[in-house]
Amino acid sequence: MAKASPWYRRLGGGATPAMLLLILMLGIYAVYEPSALTSFGISNLLNNAIVLALAATGLTIVVLTGEFDLSGAGVVAICNVMAATLSMGAPGSMGTLGLVLLVGLLVGAINAYLIAILGLQSLAVTIGSLIVCQGIALVLLPAPGGEVAEAIISGVTGDLFGIPIAGIMFVALALAWTFLKNTRWGIAVYAVGADPVASRLSGLNVPTTKFIAFVLAGLCYGAAGFVYSAEIGSGDPRISDSFLLYMFAAVAIGGTSLMGGRGGVRGSLVGVGILTVMQKMLFAIGVAEFYTNIFNGLIMIAAIFFGQLSPLVARIARRRPA
Amino acid sequence: MESKRISRGIAKAAAAALVSSMCVVPLSQAKAKDHYKVFLNMSYSGNSWQAAAANGIKALAATPPYDKMIEFKTVISGTDVQRQISDLQSMIAAGADAILIMPLSPTALNRVVKQACDKGIAVFTYDATVTQPCAHNVSSITARYGANTAQWMVNQMGGKGEVVFNHGVAGTTVTKTYDEQAYGVFKKYPGIKIVGDFYGNWNDATSQEEVAKILAAHPNIDGIWSVDGSYGSLQAVINGRPARLVTMAGQSNNGYRLAIADPAMQAKGLKGVSSSSGPSVGGYAFKLMMEVVTGKKKLEQQNVEFPLPWVEPKDVKVCPGDAFVDGCNTFPADKVSALFLDTSLDGKLLPELSIDAVQTGNPKAGAKMEELPPVKYADTLPGVNCTDCTPPADWLEPNLVKPIPVPN
Question: Average pLDDT for residues B349-359, to the nearest whole number?
């Protein structure tokens, strides 16, 4: 009964209900806010979403292997203060990008070593690296300040042939994941996340699979910090303090199981879309004050519910013929 | 098949909604001079300082004649900077005339603030500041709280003694600025020893816990310097060493003001000054913004200093009624809670407000907007209210309190 899945299902990457919710929210937002579909509105929306998209992508990869990673917010903080203090100096824009990615890679590799090789609890290890990273950010820049090079700002928040760079990054993330998940490593990620013991017994290299996941996640966080810096044009050591919650929310809304083995980056990107459009939509329809928080929470729960619907439906459908 | 058809139907409907909305032409709003669209953008919510500031602003926006002139809306962005950026963009798109912000970061909002200014929107901040030069910052951050309070403590302590240093929130400009000033003053007096310090996060519960810990290790402390969390800090000493209290600098909680003026507490050695930034800066910024927007006032500089509240024990005057009149500045203990911030009100600058107004956001019955006196422009402080600028040469020195000579 193998049938080609319809376009909308492929678009959501297994998170079709969440995708429909996103389209619905976009529709409501666009009806209430006429400027939503102008190039100003669209590029604002994409720029608002891309930082979380990069960070949530990293987190998704780790979560798929059945581990947790809280270090993302810390890496974003370090990379932001680095960009604000270095990019006007000797390293320049590209040098800063390189250094920032290197830091992400390094934090990812340290996490990976402690968790994948030494077998320590990922939650505990990454709480530690989160706190260390936030501390380092405060040492590098004790109070908000610094300046991000104009080349970085215009390079990241601008257009390429009329298409917002943030949009290009979005598509690139989705495509990169489509490629990666079909590699040997990508298939191993799902297997390890679903059942590490069975994976090891069937000859998969569990530590290496997890190691690569953490390192890739670190790279994503570094990139997120760099893009964040471009968006705000300056440094602030506390910039990502409440970021972690949204990263996990995006992953969960996108239908990735926090137990590992199920889900994917495209779902998380949809989750990021929902979280970003939600803020705009609630403003546009005139929800004010504390009601915003209530609606925020309710929509998140609804989104997670819809996100879990597709696997549920699939399970029921599978059970029926038996 | 059935489910597929339904979901395809939904997708089609949504797509149709998208397409049809593309055809909606933005209605150009005729901007009448007697009507203004004003947004209040709060960041954090749910602590008493923020609530008092926001309620004061709301009450003023509903006070005649503003109740008829202003379409007023409060938006709470939470603690994530990107959400605050997103909400500010939405306000620009919604055609705001003026935006009053409690910014989460002095630098991160600069780009979106510039976008707003470019559309002709008046952007004011209260209490916290931004470095974007087109915004107006209204704050007491330039009023040298750190230097003045530290100097006051040194004077009271005769230039010697053990001091506990209660920082605010790590990584904020306020904390860095005030800490630098206070440290600078304390360091001039070799007899002053800082025996403990902690980040109290402007929180009374945290401060009380941390002071209790330090008091256990250093039973002889003589003074506590704080920015907020002062009432909690004092409680820790009252609980741990009731017979011998301390010299303090801190906030304007009603319980703290009553305590520093209480002769029984003074007899046990309590000497305290009540200062720090007050929620009334929000109402003041709103009034100033509206006077500028309506053309009543012209500002020659971007940064306006809100006068630093300063109440020493001899200045505490208990009010008989519900508002600050005739120079009174504190309420009886049965009127408000101990943690109520007396600086939510300001008898001189905000006579339109009452206790009820700052607790509920409703306007005071019978109140009418009164015009503000001339403003005091603020010093420039790089990283606080400007980027490429120089601070006054003496910005680390006290300017309200006269230093005593260093004792031999």
Answer: 94
Residue A318 lies in a domain: no
The closest alpha carbon to A308, from A269, A278, A271, A273, belongs to A271
The whole-number pLDDT of residue B408 equals 76
In this structure, are residues A268 and A57 in contact, taking their beta carbons and an 8 Å threshold? yes
Q: How many residues appear in chain A? A: 322
- Using CA atoms, how far apart are residues B317 and B314, in angstroms rounded to an integer? 8
Of B79, B107, B176, Cβ closest to residue A232: B107
Quick check: A27 and B18 CB within 8 A?
A: yes
Reported as type and span, the H/E element at residue B137 is: strand B136-139
Q: Is the bond into B65 cis (omega within 30 degrees of 0)?
A: yes
Asked if B82 and A51 come within 8 Å (Cβ–Cβ), the reply is yes
Of A6, A235, A246, the CB nearest to B107: A235
Contact B7 A20 (CB under 8 A): yes
Closest CA to A72 of A49, A56, A48: A56
List of chain A residues with pLDDT < 70: 1-15, 288-289, 307-315, 317-322
* Contact residues for A221 (Cβ-Cβ < 8 A; gap 6+): A54, A55, A58, A71, A72, A75, A76, A79, A104, A107, A108
- The reported pLDDT for the residue numbered B385 is 92
Q: Kindly report, residue by residue over B308-321, the tens digit of the pLDDT.
A: 999 999 999 999 98
Q: Do A232 and B81 touch (CB under 8 A)?
A: yes
CATH number of B31-140+278-307+349-377: 3.40.50.2300
Residue A99 counted as domain residue: yes
A8/B73 touch (CB, cutoff 8 Å), yes or no: no
Q: What is the CATH number of the domain that holds A115?
A: 1.10.3470
| SS3 state of residue A13 | coil
Instruction: Say whether pLDDT at B28 is over 60.
Output: no
Enumerate the domain spans of chain B: 31-140+278-307+349-377, 144-274
pLDDT tens digit string along B201-255?
A: 888 899 999 999 999 999 999 999 999 999 999 999 999 999 999 999 999 999 9
Q: Give CATH superfamily name and number for B144-274.
A: Response regulator (3.40.50.2300)
Name the β-bridge partners of B124: B100, B136
Please judge whether A290 and B76 are an interchain contact, meaning their C-beta atoms are less than 8 angstroms apart.
Answer: yes
Q: Which residues from chain A sit within 8 angstroms of residue B177, using beta carbons?
A: 143
Domain hosting A189: range is 15-21+40-313
Chain B residues in contact with A147 (beta carbon < 8 A): 387
Question: Using the beta-carbon criterion (under 8 Å), do A313 and B3 form an inter-chain contact?
Answer: yes
* Phi, psi (degrees; rounded to nearest 5) at A48: -65, -30
Partnered with residue B376 across adjacent β-strands are B305
Question: What is chain B's mean pLDDT, rounded?
Answer: 89
pLDDT confidence of residue B7: 45
Rounded CA separation B391/B387 (Å): 11
Cβ-based contacts of A284 with chain B (< 8 Å): 90
Residue of B77, B85, B89, B137 best to disrupt the A interface, most CBs of A under 10 A: B89
ipTM, interface predicted TM-score of the complex: 0.80
Q: Is the pLDDT of residue B160 over 90?
A: yes
Structure tokens at B220: 């002889």
